């Protein structure tokens, strides 16, 4: 019988992700598994527009603010489930290509189950399974559970 011990739940802060978080924690509580919550910032800061570029201090301040805002958003998502001990959850924010960062995190943390929403926050989500999810399914070395 499959018994996950380390579960990764990527979130894009959408309502679909909330369903994945709930399911991930339901599974974790049943099997006493550890949960890792991950958010990936795809385009952190556009440094230049036409001929105008931001200075490095401002760019760094904006990046720090984005990371703090993302962590706060993830904590707010967790607060919607009062039965979850938010302090026991590993919360990670990364920048990069979402599916690559999800797969990298899965390998780094030796994840045996990824619980991910089949639809994301984009407008096309209602028509197609997300490109991120497709790439995670193709590249994952562990089990992947899609939520609707």
Shape estimate: globular
Q: How many distinct folded domains?
A: 1
Q: What is the strand content?
A: 15-25%
* Elements, N to C (H/E): EHEEEHEHEHE
Largest beta-sheet details: 5 strands, parallel
Low-confidence stretches: 123-128
Short description:
The chain is of the alpha/beta class and 148 residues long. The protein has four helices and seven strands. The strands form two sheets. A five-stranded parallel β-sheet has the order 5-2-1-6-7, with helices on both faces.
SSE arrangement:
Layout: E1 6-10, H1 15-31, E2 34-41, E3 48-49, E4 52-53, H2 56-79, E5 90-95, H3 98-108, E6 113-117, H4 131-139, E7 143-147
Parallel strand pairs: 1-2, 1-6, 2-5, 6-7
Antiparallel strand pairs: 3-4
Helix pairs in contact: 3-4
Notes on the protein architecture:
This protein has about 150 residues and is α/β, with parallel strands linked by helices. The protein has one domain: HUPs (Rossmann fold, 3-Layer(aba) Sandwich). The chain has four helices and seven strands, in the order βαβββαβαβαβ. The strands form two sheets. Strands 5-2-1-6-7 form a five-stranded parallel β-sheet, sandwiched between helices. A two-stranded antiparallel ribbon has the order 3-4. The longest helix has 24 residues.
Features:
Rossmann fold; two-stranded antiparallel sheet; 148 residues; 41% helix
């Amino acid at each position: 019988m499959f018994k996950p011990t380390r579960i990764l739940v990527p979130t894009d802060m959408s309502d679909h992700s909330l369903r994945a978080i709930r399911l991930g924690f339901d599974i974790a509580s049943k099997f006493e598994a550890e949960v890792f919550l991950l958010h990936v910032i795809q385009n952190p800061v556009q440094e230049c527009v036409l001929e105008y570029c931001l200075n490095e201090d401002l760019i760094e301040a904006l990046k720090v603010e984005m990371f703090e805002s993302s962590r706060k958003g993830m904590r707010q998502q967790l607060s919607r489930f009062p039965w979850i001990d938010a302090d026991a959850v590993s919360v990670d924010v990364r920048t990069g290509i979402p599916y690559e960062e999800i797969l990298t995190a899965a390998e780094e943390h030796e994840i045996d189950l990824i619980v991910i929403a089949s639809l994301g926050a984009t407008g096309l989500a209602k028509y197609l399974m997300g490109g991120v999810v497709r790439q995670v399914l193709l590249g994952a070395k562990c089990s992947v559970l899609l939520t609707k």
